[in-house]
Amino acid sequence: xxxxxxxxxxxxxxxxxxxxxxxxxxxxxxxxxxxxxxxxxxxxxxxxxxxxxxxxxxxxxxxxxxxxxxxxxxxxxxxxxxxxxxxxxxxxxxxxxxxxxxxxxxxxxxxxxxxxxxxxxxxxxxxxxxxxxxxxxxxxxxxxxxxxxxxxxxxxxxxxxxxxxxxxxxxxxxxxxxxxxxxxxxxxxxxxxxxx
Length: 196
Ligand code: SF4
Ligand code: SF4
Hints:
single chain; about 200 residues; Alpha-Beta Plaits; two-stranded antiparallel sheet; 5 helices; 7 strands; about 20% helix; binds iron/sulfur cluster; 4Fe4S_Fe-S-bd
């Protein structure tokens, strides 16, 4: 049998409103969890999947060999790659330009961030670790065209000691030395002349 007070039980009439305010009171004294984005940006987890980056060797040459494995691995069909042949530093190919060690490089490289779901399968597929992901997550824009990133948008910045390609292989004439982790040769300057 229920207590009747305008149709509701005593519990519904007296206790439930107080219990509802109890949640409010408890929450009032808790530390707020609201993030003041974009005025305060909190760092992501170290392995957060953000915008991609095309990496370089220590001499500035590009690690991408234009193999398209990343494009084939992508479940969202977000990557477009066109490979091309490098020139040789000795000019035996007719004087073409060199952008990466070895035979091929990525002449065209695009990632469509309207499609990308930041799953990371492309970076797993890359055989040279040319493609990795940064922690950058601010990828919004006000038009579709600017969300298709070109190679120039994705290439890693030049660090000290790096030279913008095209140029000859500065670490070694053998591209295997690049993959083996050989470092740039030490150049000593003696009496104004550079010697290796
Ligand atoms: S992160 Fe995933 S969806 Fe985005 S380009 Fe790579 S494979 Fe495609
Ligand atoms: S980023 Fe890696 S997988 Fe993609 S084309 Fe370049 S070398 Fe190949």
